[in-house]
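Page 47, continued from p. 46.
Same chain as before, 136 aa.
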Amino acid sequence: MNEGSRSIQTIKYKDICVYFMDYLNGGGSGFGQQYLRVLKERVGKVEHIYEFCAGPGFIGFSLLANGFCDKLTLADINPDAVECVKMTIEKNGLQDKVKCYLSDCLDSIPETEKWDLVVSNPPHWPSNEKQYKENI
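Result:
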């Protein structure tokens, strides 16, 4: 990861500071918080969450920070995103709770990995309450 040409930024979700490069933020740092309400209403707490195509992990780390899981696995094909996730894991002391893979879809994920819930960055998110209810 070339920190000289791509500066590292942070966003904090409760006690977890997430590290990312600006070009990796496709809006997930903000709308990822919408997952909190949806999970609270529809799912509740689970043991293990997997964030597919995680980027820097805005959604997964937010869910972990807010107590929706005890363990988190993240994967992305972008080496910069994976380096940011690894930085977040290291700087927050999350080595016992979080795993990260550089992977194209599930190609590099061990078959032994099992999760209770899979989340991902949606292609779009309803912009009002009516659309939200229609799309859930």
